[in-house]
């Protein structure tokens, strides 16, 4: 059981977890290719495609978009219900918060500022003269890198892995949930639920506050 009387680390996926959208799908909508890109995103989230390869394929269709067009996707920031309340509660318990995302730093940095998150680990899009090149910088933040980020930041902040929490929704979050002492599948794909200690199927992150306080799990591997 997690100890909220001691410092801990909570690691969150971003897209469809802390925020309600899949950013890459909404970016693709700006060039009229949302359906095509969303289908690839969905397959990747189910674990049917290699994440890194599918990400490169999706980013390629975004070439030549202007950075100014991104602003409309995050104005206002599409926070998931309860995201702010859960983060504030964790911070009140002296817990650190990390965003580990297969999405993009452009969005994660703004969310970091908005929620006073301690650190982010996300993919960096390549820009040239204010426009996307259609490439993403290496190394890709995939499932393995997200799990490694949890371990690395726990070590950096001298937090035992026994006091770590990970929350995500897709197959790309499985290794992260398995690396944490407590893994939460939030409105998740079935492939992720099997790896979770806690399952939340209602789109309200604040539900987790009571669940974590009481140690109640909807589903467990304990």
Give the integer mean of the pLDDT values.
94
Uncertain segments are none
Judged by helices, strands and strand pairing, the structural class is: alpha/beta
| Text of the CATH class | Alpha Beta
CATH H level: which superfamily? HAD superfamily/HAD-like
Tell me how many strands there are: 8
CATH architecture: 3-Layer(aba) Sandwich
Strand order of the largest sheet: 3-2-1-6-7-8
CATH fold naming: Rossmann fold
Order of helices and strands: EHHHHEHEEEHEHEHEH
Question: How many domains?
Answer: 1
The span between the termini is 10 Å
Enzyme class: hydrolase
Pathway: Amino-acid biosynthesis; L-serine biosynthesis; L-serine from 3-phospho-D-glycerate: step 3/3
Organism: Pseudidiomarina aestuarii
EC number: 3.1.3.3
Keyword list:
alpha/beta; 222 residues; Rossmann fold; six-stranded parallel sheet
Quick take:
InterPro entries: HAD-like_SerB, HAD-like_sf, HAD_sf, PSP. The protein has 222 residues and is of the alpha/beta class.
Overview of the structural elements:
With 222 residues, the protein is of the alpha/beta class. It has one domain: HAD superfamily/HAD-like (Rossmann fold), CATH 3.40.50.1000. The chain contains 9 helices and 8 strands. The strands form 2 sheets. It has a 6-stranded parallel sheet with strand order 3-2-1-6-7-8. A two-stranded antiparallel ribbon has the order 4-5. Helix 1 runs antiparallel to helix 2 and helix 2 runs antiparallel to helix 3. The model has no long low-confidence stretch (mean pLDDT 94).
